[in-house]
């Protein structure tokens, strides 16, 4: 990829990582509120959290792979 395209791609990955982190935190906070109010969680709540944690992990792995392959300096993309 040309440098400008790679920079744009890394910025996109960074935005996606930030959104996924926000979703994971929000879901965990919501689960904590449910538990503290005496409620119970269903499988669906766990599925949603698992989905976003997996998505976050995949995005972070993509950034790590790009760094390892030398497409991105190690200081960028975090």
Q: In a few lines, what is going on in this structure?
A:
77% of the residues lie in helices and 0% in strands.
Helix vs. strand class = mainly alpha
Mean pLDDT: 87
Backbone shape = elongated
What is the makeup of the main sheet?
A: none
Oligomer: single chain
Quantity of strands, as a count: 0
Termini separation comes to: 19 Å
Q: With helices defined by DSSP (H or I, 4 residues minimum), what is the helix count?
A: 2
Report the order of strands and helices.
HH
What fraction, in percent, of the residue positions are helical?
A: over 70%
Structural notes for this entry:
- The chain has two helices and no strands.
- It starts with a helix and ends in a 10-residue tail after the last helix.
- The chain has one domain (14-68).
- The protein has helices at 3-36, 43-68.
- By secondary structure, the protein is an all-alpha fold.
- It is 77% helix and 0% strand.
- Helix 1 runs antiparallel to helix 2 (43-68).
Keywords:
78 residues, mainly alpha, 2 helices, elongated
């Amino acid at each position: 990829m040309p440098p400008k395209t790679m920079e744009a791609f890394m910025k996109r990955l960074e935005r996606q990582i930030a959104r996924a982190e926000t979703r994971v935190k929000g879901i965990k906070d919501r689960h904590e509120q449910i538990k503290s109010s005496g409620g119970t969680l269903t499988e669906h709540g766990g599925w949603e959290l698992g989905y976003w944690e997996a998505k976050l992990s995949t995005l972070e792995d993509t950034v790590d792979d790009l760094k390892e392959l030398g497409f991105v300096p190690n200081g960028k993309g975090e």
